[in-house]
Amino acid sequence: MNITLDPVHRALRAGTVVAAVLVPLYFLVGSLGLASELPMQYSFDGEVSRTGSVTEARVTVAVLGVVAIGLIVLARFPHTFNYLVAITEDNKLRQYRNAVQMMLWLAATFVGVQIIMVGEWLHGWPIILVFVPLAAIGAAAVYFLSRMFRLK
Length: 152
Description:
The chain is mainly alpha-helical. Helix content is 64%, strand content 8%. The longest helix has 32 residues, at 92-123. It starts with 6 loop residues before the first helix and ends with a helix.
């Protein structure tokens, strides 16, 4: 089933796919001169509690890109999702569009995490910025799941 998206969500989908591909490539090239160990885990006070190899960082960034693209692909099949409300002929299109939009926003937030991680490793961005896309994951889930009940 093909759900027609508004221009904002079409742009979000395209931008997410492009970033999910380009950010790992950017990191691959940028990481060629990095130290052998990078921060991988932080304690509550913001101190590095575990380091890992550049290869581990590359794999992490690549996996986030694959997950984001996987969510984009999965969004093409909203009829396969489990819904918390009954799907009827009357609400089918509304529910499917809502689910597709949720998947697109979730994919975009994974790319946001990917961008913050790469920014921290290559440019010294404060890792606390990772909470912006993480909060967006929660906000998107709450918004679209509550919207699901309003659309029934």
